[in-house]
Each structure stands twice: as structure tokens, then as C-alpha cells.
């Protein structure tokens, strides 16, 4: 098991290198000059040149890349061109906010998507299945921002049940922190829940017709056990893959959701950095996100082996 | 209608006039099927693919998907009790304990993600209050009985670590661990090598002798039938066309379909020639002929065959569903 994990980690290294090159190049291809953005009204060529020299923007691009990646490996992602704070510090401030949002959204998605998927597979072709599918399709079709605004209007403005925006750190006041985050997490989670529901349904349908499910019934097990143990355990593999892949969607969705609910998280940091051509911050964020994505998929790979005895070494 | 019952004691399982129709089908898939089996006896249900033998057995176990089929008529008596096939709760109680089943595909019939030991233990615990330790002991003992070497160690194996023959032995262990009165085996040897086939048949026969359970063997392999059957029910297009003691079915078949089936067995002795076949195709539910379902392929078909033939008693519990049974006498009369 340990050697399997190590092998996966080694395989992930070239992926991370490729991503870092890609991120770096893309930044350089973007139109706009960060120095101009920084200097603001100041157009003195000498000042601009001084700034270019200071941030080593005059070096050849490969040299700039190796300087950046070399520093990154030492935990130095550079300094924000805009706020002069270290990028790592900025990320460390914002990351917990987004992780809380993403985790709560994922919990919503799993709690809604998986039971709904199982239920609609078991009740295939009935009104229950039909309703679940219509709801799932709506979940996929309704844009996050619209759902977010509607919820704010109804739940916060009209019924005054939950706050419309803001953020309280988990360490400060856990109950309040979770309460504030419920609505954004729900908005972010619905689209994922719909995707999860559709995939759970199809995975379950495939498994429910299998011979071993018939065997489980032939043993005289109660139907609940047949479905939740014998069928669901086998349907879990595609669901785990999907959950890991949804991590990307979660981060992308978080950007939008944080804007709607004015949550000071990762998403807001990205948007601000892109608008201000804050290269160092954008690069840092994308790199951290990519590593996170790879880590999630690594976890999924490990989960496969735990779920599927055929992959285990004998 | 009298039933096959050569023993004095009441039959273990009696199925009478059983009819079933799949949702949306224009005719009954299973049409007024009757058969019975006694304790310690083996009934073979024979027929080609699609004749309804598997559907019938799944229906008896209550394993047909809910809502897929509608039972139109029929009675089932099991251990002297009338069973309601439409009552899932009652069926689940006897299923896996008093009446158990093994299937054609040992490779896919065991759940790939659970240890075989746990799968057998689960079968024990589904029907008794046995503790984990007691259930494990019974599972190990049962694996031993079906001829699995080092059973305590094998308990920890996953299905993919076993060969097809071994997996079918595990399936048999799982089916017999609760001491059933009746074992339904749906083509248990079809997917196995010939040598393994013989071993599995012998195992089932030995266990049957030990426990006195009744067995329904569903097969299309007449070699298997000759080997183990006490009684035979020949099915064609959802009907039982002929039933009776095995030796009478083999030596003196009375239904034209059975005669065709028997003559299609390749012989090692005698003149060599083309293998005999029954011409034509099995009718589907959409083009089911009225009356005798075999009439479209029958060499002896007459106008009367458009009416449903009665099950005619020929003697010794030997019955054939043909207007012309017994064949030699009746055909001579009508000629």
C-alpha cells in the first residue's frame, strides 16, 4: 500500500512541473503590463524601469520561470505586486475560508446527491425517479449566481433567517461561522449534488442488475441491506472518482459564490489578482489549487484500492 | 390433473397451474406449468434457451424484479404450506433458508468486494440468531464439506482469488449452510470445464444424499439429466410438454418435442450422419401459436392442434401434453 502511494506521488511530480510551466507561460501571454498597473498614474519611464528591474521582469522568460519555481520550492511564492504582502501569507489567510466553504458544499452535495441517486435508481421508472431527475436537471441548469441572489432575497431579506453575507472564522465562533456559511455552501453544493445524483443513479442501475445482487437477494437478505451494502459498495468506485474530479468544479464555483456572498476567500483573491495583473498571486493560487487537485485525485486512487480488493496486491 | 408423485409421502414442493406474463407481453410467458419434487429427489427441468425454465425457478424463489411480471394463476405448496408468490416478506423468510438457489455464473454470482467467508456468514445470520463466532464455525464447516481445502484460511479470500469451480463450491456452501429443504440449481455447471462439471454434479449428489434435500436442476444438458434426474419436466415455450420418471422420458418419450430433443443427442455408436435437429424456431411471446405451442414445428400437427392439448397420463406418472399421446396408438387411429 505504501509503495503504491509513493508510486502515485512520483507520477504526480511531472504533472505538477507541467502545470507550473503552463501557468507561468499563460501569465506571460496575457495582454497588459503589470508594471503599468502598479505604477498607476505614474508614467515616468525611469520609475517603470526601476520596477521592472526590482521584480526581475527584464530577465529572459526561462530565467524568470526558474527563479519563480526555485523560490516556490523553498516556500516563497513571491510578493504581491499590489499589496506587497508575501503571496504565501495571502493564500494562508484566505485558504481556510474557501476550504470551509468547499467542505460544507461537498457535504451538502454528498448528503443530497448520493441518497437521491440511490433512491431514483431503486425506484427507476416511477414518479419518484421522474421527480428526482427533474430536480437534478434544475439543479444543473440554474446558475449559481441566480440561485444565490434568490436565496438572499428570500431567506435573508424577506424571512430574515440567515445572514446574507459575511464571514466569521471557525475558530472564533463555530456555530455562527457555520450558520453564515450555510447558504453559500448550499448554493455551491446544488450543482454538484445534481451531478453526483445522476452518476450515482447510473452506477447503481448498472450494479442492481448484477448477478451478485441477485445472489444477495437469494440469501434472503432484507432489501435495504441488498441495496446499501451489496449494490452500493460496488457502485462507489465511479462515485469516488467523480467526487475527486468535482474538486476542480468546487474551486471554480467558489470564486463565483464568494463574490455573491462577499466572502473574503480564495475566489475573491483570484478575481482581484487577475484584474490587477498581480502575477505572483495568480501564479501562486493556480499552483496551490493544482497541487490540491492532484492531491484529491491521489486520495481517490488510494480509495480505489481500499474499495476494490482486485487491485490489492496479494 | 394428477401430479408426479411416485412416493407415498407428500411432495416437498408442488407447483400447480402456474402462469406468468411479463409486463406488456401479448401472451403468457409461462403457461399453466405444473411439477413437483419430493425430499431427497431430483427433478430436472429441461428445455432450450428461452423456454421459461429459469424464469419459473426465479419466480418460485420470489426473485423476479418487482413489477416486471404478473402472476396470472397457480398454486405453490412448499413443505405442505401454500406460499403466496406475491408476498415478498413471506418469500424472503424461506428464501435462503428453506429454499435456496445457485446460479449459472459462478464468476459473477459472488460479490467481488467482500470476503467469501463474510458472504457465507451473512447468509447464516440472515436467518438465525447465531453469534459471529457460531456463524463463522458453520461457514468453515460448510466450506470443508463442499471440498474447499484449508477452509479457515480460504474464508479470508476474495472471489477473484478463486477459480470458477471453487467459486461454484462457495456458492453451494452458501446455499446449503442453512440446511435447506430444497435446492434450486439453475444450470450450475454450464459455465464450467467438463471435468469440473462432473465434480460439481457429484458434489451436489453427495450433499443431497447426506442431507435428504430435494433438488430442482435446471439444465439444457441432457447428459446432466441422464446422470442425476429422478424425474424430468420438459419445457417448451413456457409450457411443460412432458413430465415423468427420468428413465421413461429417455426410453419412451411421448411428446413430439421430447422425441426431437432425444434424437438430437449425438450418439457414439451406430451409423454416422447429420445430427438430427428440431426444424424451425421457438415462437416468441408475440407470435405464440394458439393451442399447442409446438404445433408450428411439429411433424405430426393436425387441425386439432390449434386447441390447447390436455396433459395426458400415460402411466407411472408419465404425462404428455399432446392430443396424440400416447403417440403410437393415437397416430395409428387418426391415420
UniProtKB/TrEMBL annotation, chain A:
* Annotated CDD domains: TM_PBP2 (cd06261)
GO cellular component terms listed in the entry, alphabetical order: plasma membrane
Could you tell me the superkingdom of the organism this chain comes from? Bacteria
Keywords linked to the UniProt accession: Cell membrane, Membrane, Transmembrane, Transmembrane helix, Transport
Alphabetical list of InterPro entries matching this protein = BPD_transp_1_N (IPR045621), MetI-like (IPR000515), MetI-like_sf (IPR035906)
Q: How does it sit in the membrane?
A: Multi-pass membrane protein
Q: What is this protein called?
A: ABC transporter permease
Q: Which GO terms describe its molecular function?
A: dipeptide transmembrane transporter activity
Q: Does the keyword Transmembrane helix apply?
A: yes
A Pfam family annotated for this UniProt entry: BPD_transp_1
Q: Which family does it belong to?
A: Belongs to the binding-protein-dependent transport system permease family.
The subcellular localization recorded is: Cell membrane
Q: Which Gene3D superfamilies match?
A: MetI-like (1.10.3720.10)
Q: Where are the transmembrane segments?
A: 9-30, 99-122, 134-157, 177-196, 235-261, 281-307
Residue ranges of every copy of the ABC transmembrane type-1 domain listed in the record:
95-300
UniProtKB/TrEMBL annotation, chain B:
Outline the extent of the ABC transporter domain. 15-262
Keyword list (alphabetical) reads: ATP-binding, Cell membrane, Membrane, Nucleotide-binding, Transport
The record's Pfam families line, in alphabetical order, gives: ABC_tran, oligo_HPY
Any idea where this protein resides? Cell inner membrane
Please tell me one Gene Ontology term that the record gives under cellular component: plasma membrane
Q: Which InterPro entries match?
A: AAA+_ATPase, ABC_Ni/Peptide_Import, ABC_transporter-like_ATP-bd, ABC_transporter-like_CS, Oligopep_ABC_C, P-loop_NTPase
Q: Does the keyword Cell cycle apply?
A: no
Membrane topology, as annotated, equals: Peripheral membrane protein
Task: List, alphabetically, the SUPFAM superfamilies matched.
Answer: P-loop containing nucleoside triphosphate hydrolases
One GO biological process this protein is involved in is:
peptide transport
User: Which GO molecular function entries does the Swiss-Prot or TrEMBL record give?
Assistant: ATP binding; ATP hydrolysis activity
Family the entry assigns? Belongs to the ABC transporter superfamily.
Entry protein name: ABC transporter ATP-binding protein
Q: What is the lineage of its organism?
A: Bacteria, Pseudomonadati, Pseudomonadota, Alphaproteobacteria, Rhodobacterales
Amino acid at each position: 500500500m505504501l509503495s503504491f502511494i509513493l508510486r502515485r506521488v512520483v507520477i504526480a511530480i511531472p504533472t505538477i512541473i507541467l502545470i507550473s510551466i503552463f501557468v507561468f507561460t499563460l501569465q506571460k501571454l496575457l495582454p497588459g503590463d503589470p508594471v503599468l498597473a502598479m505604477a498607476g498614474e505614474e508614467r515616468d519611464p525611469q520609475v517603470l524601469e526601476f520596477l521592472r528591474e526590482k521584480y526581475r521582469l527584464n530577465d529572459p522568460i526561462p530565467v524568470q520561470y526558474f527563479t519563480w519555481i526555485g523560490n516556490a520550492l523553498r516556500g516563497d511564492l513571491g510578493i504581491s505586486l499590489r499589496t506587497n504582502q508575501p503571496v504565501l501569507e495571502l493564500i494562508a489567510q484566505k485558504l481556510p475560508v474557501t476550504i470551509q466553504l468547499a467542505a460544507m458544499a461537498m457535504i451538502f452535495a454528498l448528503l443530497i446527491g448520493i441518497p437521491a441517486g440511490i433512491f431514483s435508481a431503486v425506484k427507476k421508472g416511477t414518479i419518484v425517479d421522474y421527480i428526482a431527475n427533474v430536480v437534478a436537471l434544475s439543479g444543473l441548469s440554474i446558475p449559481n449566481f441566480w440561485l444565490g441572489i434568490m436565496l438572499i432575497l428570500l431567506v435573508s431579506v424577506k424571512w430574515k433567517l440567515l445572514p446574507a453575507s459575511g464571514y466569521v472564522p471557525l475558530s472564533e465562533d463555530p456555530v455562527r461561522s457555520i450558520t453564515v456559511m450555510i447558504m453559500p455552501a448550499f448554493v455551491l453544493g446544488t450543482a454538484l449534488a445534481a451531478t453526483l445524483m445522476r452518476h450515482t443513479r447510473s452506477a447503481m442501475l448498472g450494479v442492481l442488475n448484477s448477478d451478485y445482487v441477485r445472489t444477495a437477494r437469494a440469501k434472503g437478505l432484507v432489501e435495504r441491506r441488498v441495496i446499501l451494502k451489496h449494490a452500493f459498495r460496488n457502485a462507489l468506485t465511479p462515485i469516488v472518482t467523480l467526487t475527486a474530479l468535482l474538486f476542480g468544479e468546487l474551486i471554480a464555483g467558489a470564486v463565483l459564490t464568494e463574490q455573491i456572498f462577499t466572502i473574503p476567500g480564495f475566489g475573491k483573491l483570484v478575481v482581484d489578482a487577475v484584474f490587477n495583473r498581480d502575477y505572483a498571486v495568480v501564479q501562486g493560487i493556480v499552483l496551490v489549487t493544482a497541487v490540491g487537485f492532484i492531491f484529491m485525485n491521489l486520495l481517490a486512487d488510494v480509495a480505489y484500492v481500499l474499495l476494490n480488493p482486485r487491485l490489492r496486491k496479494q | 390433473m394428477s401430479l408426479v408423485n411416485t412416493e407415498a409421502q407428500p411432495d416437498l414442493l408442488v407447483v400447480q397451474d402456474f402462469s406468468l406474463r411479463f409486463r406488456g407481453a401479448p401472451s403468457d410467458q409461462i403457461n399453466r406449468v405444473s411439477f413437483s419434487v419430493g425430499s431427497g429427489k431430483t427433478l430436472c427441468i429441461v428445455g432450450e434457451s428461452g423456454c421459461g425454465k429459469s424464469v419459473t425457478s426465479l419466480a418460485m424463489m420470489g426473485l423476479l424484479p418487482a413489477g416486471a411480471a404478473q402472476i396470472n394463476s397457480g398454486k405453490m405448496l412448499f413443505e405442505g404450506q401454500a406460499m403466496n408468490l406475491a408476498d415478498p416478506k413471506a418469500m424472503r423468510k424461506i428464501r435462503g433458508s428453506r429454499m435456496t438457489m445457485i446460479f449459472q455464473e459462478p464468476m459473477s454470482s459472488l460479490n467481488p468486494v467482500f470476503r467469501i467467508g463474510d458472504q457465507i456468514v451473512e447468509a447464516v445470520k440472515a436467518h438465525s440468531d447465531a453469534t459471529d463466532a457460531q456463524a463463522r464455525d458453520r461457514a468453515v464447516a460448510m466450506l470443508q464439506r463442499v471440498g474447499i481445502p484449508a477452509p479457515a484460511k480460504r474464508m479470508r479470500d476474495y472471489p477473484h482469488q478463486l477459480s470458477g469451480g471453487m467459486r461454484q463450491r462457495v456458492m453451494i456452501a452458501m446455499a446449503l449452510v442453512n440446511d435447506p429443504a430444497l435446492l434450486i440449481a439453475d444450470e450450475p455447471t454450464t459455465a464450467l470445464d467438463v471435468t469440473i462439471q462432473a465434480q460439481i454434479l457429484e458434489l451436489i449428489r453427495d450433499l443431497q444424499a447426506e442431507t435428504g434435500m430435494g433438488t430442482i436442476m435446471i439444465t439444457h444438458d441432457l447428459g446432466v439429466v441422464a446422470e442425476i434426474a429422478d424425474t424430468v419436466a420438459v419445457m417448451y415455450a413456457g409450457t411443460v410438454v412432458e413430465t415423468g420418471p427420468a428413465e421413461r422420458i429417455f426410453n419412451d418419450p411421448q411428446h413430439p418435442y421430447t422425441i426431437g430433443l432425444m434424437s438430437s443427442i449425438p450418439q457414439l455408436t451406430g451409423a454416422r450422419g447429420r445430427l438430427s435437429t428440431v426444424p424451425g424456431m421457438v415462437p416468441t411471446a408475440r407470435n405464440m401459436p394458439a393451442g399447442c405451442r409446438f404445433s408450428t414445428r411439429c411433424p405430426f400437427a393436425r387441425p386439432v392442434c390449434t386447441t390447447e392439448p390436455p396433459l395426458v397420463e400415460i402411466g407411472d406418472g408419465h404425462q404428455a401434453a399432446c392430443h396424440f399421446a400416447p403417440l403410437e396408438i393415437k397416430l395409428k387411429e387418426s391415420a
